[in-house]
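Note to self: the last two entries modelled the partners one at a time, which told us nothing about the interface. This time every component goes in together.
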Amino acid sequence: MTVTTPQGFRSAGIAVGLKSTGKPDLALVVNDGPQHASAAVFTSNRAQANPILWSRKVAQEGPARAIILNSGGANCFTGDFGYETTRLTAAAVAAELNADPEQILVCSTGLIGTGDQAFRDKIVGNVPALAAALSGSDTTAPAAILTTDSVEKTAVHRGDGWTIGAMAKGAGMLAPGLATMLVVITTDALLDDAALDSALRGATATSFDRLDSDGCMSTNDQVTLLASGASGVAPDETEFANALAAVCDSLAAQLQADAEGASHNIDIEVLGAASDSDAIEVGRSVARNNLFKAAIFGNDPNWGRVLAAIGTTEAAFDPYQVDVSFNGVRLCHAGAPDRPVDECDLTPRKTHVRIELFAGEHSATIRTNDLTHDYVHENSAYSS
Amino acid sequence: MTVTTPQGFRSAGIAVGLKSTGKPDLALVVNDGPQHASAAVFTSNRAQANPILWSRKVAQEGPARAIILNSGGANCFTGDFGYETTRLTAAAVAAELNADPEQILVCSTGLIGTGDQAFRDKIVGNVPALAAALSGSDTTAPAAILTTDSVEKTAVHRGDGWTIGAMAKGAGMLAPGLATMLVVITTDALLDDAALDSALRGATATSFDRLDSDGCMSTNDQVTLLASGASGVAPDETEFANALAAVCDSLAAQLQADAEGASHNIDIEVLGAASDSDAIEVGRSVARNNLFKAAIFGNDPNWGRVLAAIGTTEAAFDPYQVDVSFNGVRLCHAGAPDRPVDECDLTPRKTHVRIELFAGEHSATIRTNDLTHDYVHENSAYSS
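The predicted structure of the combined assembly is written out below.
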C-alpha cells in the first residue's frame, strides 16, 4: 500500500497494451473524500504534453476527484487529436465516478509523438476495467506508471493520526523544473488547497528541483498532491510541510538511484555561496558537465573539470580560492592541486563532491548521475 | 606549409616529452615582420589557465612577436608556480628572438592541474632546440598542438597578393566562448591591430562560437591572429574579413569532424527566428541535449527530443507551430507528426536538422556531434 495508505483513497494498475512488454501501463488513484483538496506542480518546459495542458486547468479550477496515469506514450505533440484523447480519458473516468471530466487529472509518459487512435482506444476503452480494479489496499498502481525504471518508487510518512503515501516514476529526462517524473502523493490530513500548495512548492523546490540527472527537461512532468481529509486530523502546517519535504526527498533519492544507465549517484554539495541561487547554479553547472560525468563513470576524480564547469557560471566567487573534495579527500585547495588523486576512491556507487566557494554562508546539494555507456545505449535505442 | 604560407613567418614543432606517447608537443610560430600587428580572443570561462592570464596582457599591450604552444598539460589551476612557468616560457622564447618576454604569447592544452617542475623543465629547457628548428617552410607545428585529435587541422586562403594560413587543435571540451581549441592564424596582409581585431571577432562569432560539440567550455582556449605586413599589400578590410571568416569556418568544420568519439557531424539550422540570438539559443539548446545526441548516435530521428529541448529556451516562438526536418524529411509539422520517421536515413555521418520557428526572419546554424560510447570511453579514461 502506498497511495492508499492514507484513508479515503483507492487505486489500481492494469495492463492495457500500451507497453510492448505487456507490463501494467494504466493507473488510477481516486480520492473518495470527504474532502477533495489538491495541489500540483508541472514541468516548466514550454513544450508541454496534452495531459499537462489539461491537468493545469483541472488543478486550477478543481476539485480534483481522481488522477489517471498511463505509461507507454507521452501524448505530446500529437495535435488536437491528442488533446481530445486526454479529454475523453478524463470523461471516461468521470463517468465511472459520477463526476465531471474537469475534475479528473490526467498524466502520460513515454515517447513524444505517440498518441494515435490505437493509443486512445486502449486507454479510454479500458477505463471501466481499471475502475473495477480499484481497491483501498491496492499495490498494483506504482508498477503501472514506470517506463525505463527498474524498480517501483514509493514512500510513506505516518504522522500523529494522519499519513502521507506516494508513488513516483523517473528514469530518464531527469532535470528540473522537474524531472521526467510523474509523482502522486496522497494524504488523509485535513488541509485546504492553499496549505497543500505552499507545502508542495516548498517540498519540490528542495527535492525534485535539485535532481538533475541528465540536464534534459521533460514535457510531461507532474507532481500531484491529493488530500481526502478522511483522518479528520488537521496537522500543524509546518509539521506537514516538513513531512512532505521528507517524502519528496526520499522519492528524489530513489529517482537518482535508478536513473537510466547510471553507475554512480553523485551528490554535489556546494558550500560557502553568496546566495542559495548561486549554490544551485554552481552545483547544476557541474551536474550538467558531460566531461565531469564521464570522468566519474571512469572512477577518475577529475577536479579540473569541476573548476572548468563552475567557471562558466555567474555566481559570486573567486575560482582561484575554491576547494574541491571528492569522497572526503580535498584534491584542490585555493585553486591548486592538494592531496594526490590516488588517495580518492570512486568505486562506491555513492559519490560526494564538495565544493567550497568561500563567498558566503549559503549552500545547496544537487543530485546527479554519471555519464555511462549504458546511458548512451538506452537512449540511442529507446524508440526502436 | 600552413602558418608559414604567408610571408614573414617561421614555425617549428618538436617532441619534448610532455606527451606520454612521445609525439610532438611543443610548437613555436614567429612573426619576423616587418609589422607585428595582432589580435586574439580568449575563452570566456572565468576559470582560466595561466597562459590565458599571461597572453591576455601580451595581446592588450603588444606587439606580439611570437606564440609558443604546448600540448600535454594545461597549466591551469597550478597556482603561482604555474604562472611563473608561463612567464619563464615567454622569457626563454624572448631570449632567442632578442625580444621582451611581454611580447611572447603562450598557449597550453591538456589535463587541468598539470604543470609541475618536470613540465616546466621540459618546456623551458627545450626552447633553444625549438628555436633552432624554426623554418619558413615548416610543416611540423600543426602536429605539436594536437591532443586527442586524430588529424591535423589547417587552412589557407590566397588573396590578391596576400595570404592567410592557419592551424588548429580541437577534439574535446568543445563549446563556445570558444572550444578547447587553440588556433593560430597568420597573414602577410598589411593591416593594423584594430582591423585585425574587428575581423577576428566577426569571424569567430560565426564559426568557433557556433560550434558546440559537448557543451563543455574550456579553460585554455585562445584564437590568435598575427600579421606581418610582409606582402606590402593592404587588402580591402571587408574582403579580408570575409576571407578570415571562411578560414575560421573551415577550421570549425574540421574540429566538428574530428570531435572526440563522434560518429555524426550534426548541423542544426534554425530558421524563422525573431533574432539572431534567439536562433543561436534554440540551436544550442538542441546541441546540448544529451537525449537528442544519443538518439542521433542510434540513427533515431527523435524529433520529440528536439521540441523538448527548444521548449526550455526563452526564444520567441510557439512550440505548437514549429516544423522539424531531419536530413530533408519533415517529420514534425506545426507541432505534430508529419512524415513517417522511417523515411529518414541517419546513417550518413553528416546530419542536418532544420528547425523552422515561424517567428521572424533570422537564422543560425550550430554545429555539434552525437553522444557515443566512444565519447564516454575517451573522457572516462582521459587522465589515466
